[in-house]
Amino acid sequence: MLSWNKAVLESVTASLRRLKPAIDAMQKGEKLMNKEDYQGAEPHFQAALRHAPDDYAGLVMMSKCQIGLKQPEQARRFADRAKQVNPQEAQARHVDGVARLMQKDYAGAYADFKAYERLLPGNPNTVFLAAVSLEGARDRQGAAKEYYRYLQTSRQGEQAQHAYQRLQAWGYIK
Q1: Helix, strand or coil for residue 148?
Q2: How far apart are alpha carbons 57 and 173 in whole angstroms?
Q3: What are the angstrom distances between the C-alpha of 52 and each of 22, 96, 145?
């Protein structure tokens, strides 16, 4: 039994050693993204994905990086791949929704944000973005409902101010 456990441990360790270059590259890219240096981060994510092309976290980070570079088409490509790799994870849907908003694909963005909410409810930012999507699609009633729902959880900041102003302008609140 001890030899079996040792073999399993060695296998897992070897697998982790193979992923180390990808993990290191993702960490470097993430540090640069935190500094909003998306151009500097991109080659690190490219390197990570060369080592681990189906890594969900790497695909999502690359998608976020592409959003920072204002490349929504590329962001969507990486988000779509992440959704294929792990359909039960929510974050790729959120990132794809943001990329779709950038492309003015309001119906697609709304669908992504609602899918995110089904998988991982409770993110007020997603509710706000769903409202923005509906507003872009000229669904004032739907947008008002989502903005109102957003204001139930968040009353401060630019997004809350925007939501309140839209509801006020549309005559839903005085």
Answers
A1: helix
A2: 41
A3: 6, 21, 42
CA distances, 65 to each of 35, 37, 72, 138, 173 (Å)? 12, 9, 10, 29, 38
Main-chain dihedrals φ then ψ at residue 95, nearest 5 degrees = -65, -40
50 token code pair: 């060369």
Could you report the per-residue pLDDT of 103-159, keeping only the tens digit for each?
999 999 999 999 999 999 999 999 999 999 999 999 999 999 999 999 999 999 999
pTM of the model: 0.88
| Closest to 150 (Cα-Cα) out of 161, 141, 158, 160 | 160
Distances (CA, A) of 158 to 69, 127, 130, 162, 163: 23, 14, 16, 6, 9
Please give the structure tokens belonging to residue 94: 């959120």
C-alpha atoms less than 13 angstroms from C-alpha of 140 in its C-beta half-sphere: 7
- Domains of the chain by start residue, with CATH: 14-105 (1.25.40.10), 122-174 (no CATH)
